[in-house]
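Posting for a labmate who doesn't have an account.
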Amino acid sequence: MAVAGFVTILTEALPAGLLPQIGDSLGVSEAMAGQWISIYALGSLLAAIPLTAATRSWRRRPLLLGAIFGFAVANLITALTTSFIVALVARFVGGVSAGLLWALLAGYAVRMAPSHLAGRAMAIAMAGTPLALSIGIPAGTLLGKLAGWRLTFGLLSVIALLLIGWIAAKVPDFAGEAETERPSLAQVFAVPGVRPVLAVTLCFVLAHNILYTYIAPLLTTHNIVGQTDRILLAFGVAGLVSIGLTGALIDKWLRLLTLVGIGLFLTAAFILAATDGAPLVVYGAALIWGLGFGGAATLFQTASARAAGTAADVAQAMIVTAWNIAIAGGASVGGVILETAGAVGLPWASITFLFVAAGSVLFMMRSTRLKPANLFDYRKKAGAS
């Protein structure tokens, strides 16, 4: 599960470190090259809920294998084509595969683990995200600079094919949902806790992708040129630490970890907005940012799964949709800011959305009169629903 997530995140985010190379190769601007991330996210957000709803009765392992095969095809076409339009279509197909895969991963992890370790199992399954950010993207960025970005995407296709064989041999299969056990999408959306988690996810991830997609031009404004891979490495290593802490603490401290993550990210964004370009300060901001972001996927998906109970796959599809709306929005909004206000405006836009996320969390706590430790813990209410 973790390797599947690794391939998904790497396929999605690798263009962020190679925008200049991709743009030069295909004859487009960096802002246009950044739309590779937008179109991927668009495929995910359009496909996640419909595909998950349509395949709820399907056995889980064949569905998982089909999603990973989609990555193999999409990355191979991306590596071989010389057309920007064809590459966009391939990226869209990869995004469709990602939307289905992310909807499956959380439920798969929960079903393979004892109920009292569900949060920890999900943290392990989601470890592919910080691994991709800390190791995969810096390594892919370096390889893309040395040997060309096409080779990097070709290797991703090979990894996906190897992963198909590994899953077929080692991952257990599970039945889908029986017809009588399926609440409607509207019923799942109405479960207490699902909508608040979706709102916080949307704002938090939007803030992240405004910065992350255009990290290379942002670093240029700080006079840090040629160090994108190292900055991403610092971010990713901190993300690994974050996912470890999240896995250890999430079953008891879900609400607190969410608030701390938002606070750390806000701190990093303020540093990036205010710094005069001192490299050590920027590296410090990347570390703080990674600590705040690393456990986010696990936190939001665990909260969603707790809220939805047996309908976890559908709730995960909604999280995937919100997440990818934020990815597409981050790439698009960030591209507009980059073209109009310049890269210096990117941190301030992220700060705005992070304040909205923090305000949403505090508003939920106050309006629902829940105890802080139970802010995102709606399992009992979800079961009653």
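Reply:
Got it, the structure tokens are right above this. Residues 2-384 form a domain with the Growth Hormone; Chain: A; fold (CATH 1.20.1250.20).
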